[in-house]
Amino acid sequence: MTFPVPARPYPFPFAPGRTALVVIDMQRDFIEKGGFGDSLGNDVTRLEAIIPTTAKLIDLFRRKKWPVVHTREAHLPDLSDCPPSKIRRGDAPLRIGEEGAMGRLLVRGEPGNQIVDSLKPIAGEIVIDKPGKGMFWNTDIQPILDNKGVTHLVFAGVTTEVCVQTSMREANDRGYECLLIEDATESYFPEFKQIAIEMIVAQGGIVGWATPFAALEAAVTKALAHA
């Protein structure tokens, strides 16, 4: 069974029981002052602004008992899973693995690497530490989703043009139907967010679909009113 969710470029076929929510990298390192994003000179308040909508999205999936996946961009403490080129790149005053205001940047277990308090995973939800931009590379998410019978993914998180889009493209290549919630994703650069969304929905949804949270919520409420 599927039901349509109004979306671009055409309605998304939502499959209850076979759809998981993926919340990409809503971690302190990217969203709060003193983290990795802030060290690069970015305005982190842009990312902080999507927390309320993302929280509503997570709550919707929790109420329906549909799977929720949280990712964190995170490296092992010895940085053995972080290419030297990634550490060297850019001219930030603090680099991956160095000590910042919230511990070592982008390192597993550090305070800054945790999901922001208002979106913290609850018992039973899936948490994936990914060493790259995409959620599939060098992680065990594929067999986890397969074991749950997941065929459709709803995406939220940051940043739209980097880790979110990369993860959607990886998922698309693996045969998942992907929907991005436009007001539950953000970029440090507003123009990058909009361009990324246009790339995703172009050519008949070459990567996937996009819609605001209100459209998804209304469609779920209508379709499952008597469920």
Automatic annotation (TrEMBL):
InterPro entries, alphabetized:
Isochorismatase-like_dom, Isochorismatase-like_hydrls, Isochorismatase-like_sf
Single Gene Ontology MF annotation: hydrolase activity
Pfam families registered for this protein in UniProt: Isochorismatase
Could you tell me the keywords of this UniProt record?
Hydrolase
Domain Isochorismatase-like per the UniProt entry, residue ranges:
19-207
Gene3D superfamilies from the UniProt entry: Isochorismatase-like
Protein name, UniProt field:
Cysteine hydrolase
Q: Highest lineage ranks of the organism?
A: Bacteria, Pseudomonadati, Pseudomonadota, Alphaproteobacteria, Hyphomicrobiales
